[in-house]
Amino acid sequence: MTTQRAIPLRILLVDDDEHDQLTFRQAFHTSGIPCNILNCTSSAAALEILGFEPLPCDVVVIHHHLPGICGLELCRMLIGRDVKIPLVILTDHGSEDVAADALQAGAYEYVIKDRDNNYLAIVPALISKVVHKYAERLLRKQIEEDLRESRKRLAQIVEGFAVATFVIDARHTITHWNRACANITGVSAEEMIGTRHHWRAFYSTERPVMADLIVDGISEEFLIRNYARECRRSTIIEGAYEAEDYFPHFGSGGKWLFFTAAPIRDRDGKIIGAIETLQDITERKQAEQALRESEHRYYELSITDALTGLYNSRHFHSQLQIEMERAERYRHPLSLLLLDVDDFKRFNDAYGHLEGDRVLAGLAQVIRESIRHTDSAYRYGGEEFVAILPETDGEEALRVAERLRLAFAKTVFIPVAEKQVSMTVSIGISCLRPEDDAKGFIHRADNCTYSAKRQGKNRVVYEELPNTATS
Q: Assuming Cys at both sites, which of 54, 61, 234, 321 could form a disulfide with 240, CB separation 3.0 to 4.6 Å?
């Protein structure tokens, strides 16, 4: 038994940096994806290589910064020459503007190069997928053009199409239901052709599919309302629409489908049927969801203090500004607690930083348990913490702070065997005033905390009510 060897990708890499050329080759070698990489160092050289037929490569990977003609301009020139090959831009810039420029210049995809070269881990698979998807897109476009030119070839084209496809006539009767469509829906052509039951493949109750709406000449507004999930006009086929939807009964766990429905017209332009294609985009949707979750995790990590699990000071300053603006807009109260662990340096010197970290983590836990779900807490720096209390006046803030102070004083730490230690915290409170900026708001709470320290520690001080210091 012999195994068929994969045809190597033919890649033209346009990059004047020898180190980047080497790491690019190493990335493909590591990935195991077979390829032949042809290097050139300028746009002029690339234009010369791509000026001959047949093209010597399957994909062109272009660095954004090139001597002479830049990468984006090279893309424009190749598109202008109708060179039918996918273009991938490598850029050191991650801005949306650069991405938009790359796509407008004709790039099929772009990759952002990071300083640690982590992008190299995804480049081989991405480029392989670009070549595959680009070939599919060209094939689909060619088939769609053939459909408009001659209905006589429709049966052969549809049945041989790798993309799931079905066709209905002007009476909404199914005329074609290819093997790919049978595979993706689980319903055979024998069950469908000659009937008007195509809805059964997609829905539990009778309702029109997009091809039906195209045949009926339904308005764009109705189409968008019927397919709320990203329904839009096709940029390729006149009068066609595209949409995405989830079908829970497909497969073992449901599938996401991307479908395009286009009208079939006679010589006079009258709609005599519709063709609809279906593509399984479940993996893409799952990848997008995973990316969103990953981005959320990274965002949470970026605003979270690793030791305490509370938000960090950078996030505090941004959130404080938001809460101040909201309080001022609606004229609602806003209070701020600033906490400082008493005698923390002495504890650290006596028992070490590891035990000191446990004290900070313990206070963070007490803060979480003492504030409300509408409040937010932050590690401000060192042994200092802050809590933002929206919709909270001074008296209510005082109750929250006192509850927190007492709870922490009852917390027992065991820095060494058989030795129990209790710690205390001094808390300052400030309430937002009309003339406050963020700096002044924080400064007044900080002054109250220092006042609590001077008055003997383990107490709450609120400057608006001078006699409310408690211990």
A: 234
Least confident of 20-34, 107-121, 394-408: 107-121
Range of the domain at 45: 9-135
Asked whether 394 and 445 are in contact (CB, 8 A), the reply is: no
User: Of the residues 323, 355, 383, 395, which is catalytic?
Assistant: 383
Structural domain tally of the chain? Answer: 3
**Which span out of 129-138, 282-291, 360-369 was modeled with the highest average pLDDT?**
360-369
Are 345 and 400 found together in one domain? Answer: yes
pLDDT at 292: 86
* Cβ atoms within 10 Å of 458's Cβ, excluding its own: 21
Strands 255-265 and 271-280, bridge-based pairing = antiparallel
Residue 469: the pLDDT is 47
> What does the alpha-carbon distance between residue 118 and residue 224 come to, in Å, rounded to a whole number?
40
Cis before 34 (ω within 30): no
State the CATH number of the domain containing residue 47: 3.40.50.2300
Q: Can 383 be counted among the known catalytic residues?
A: yes
pLDDT for the residue numbered 96 = 59
Instruction: Take residue 325 and report the two structure tokens written for it.
Output: 């603006």
Specify the DSSP element, H or E, that contains 377: strand 376-381
Q: What DSSP line would sit under 154-198, residue for residue?
A: HHHHHHH-SSEEEEEETTS-EEEE-HHHHHHHS--HHHHTTSS-G
Residues 335 and 377 in one domain: yes
Q: Which residues pair with 376 in a beta bridge?
A: 388
- Based on the domain organization, do 455 and 307 belong to the same domain? yes
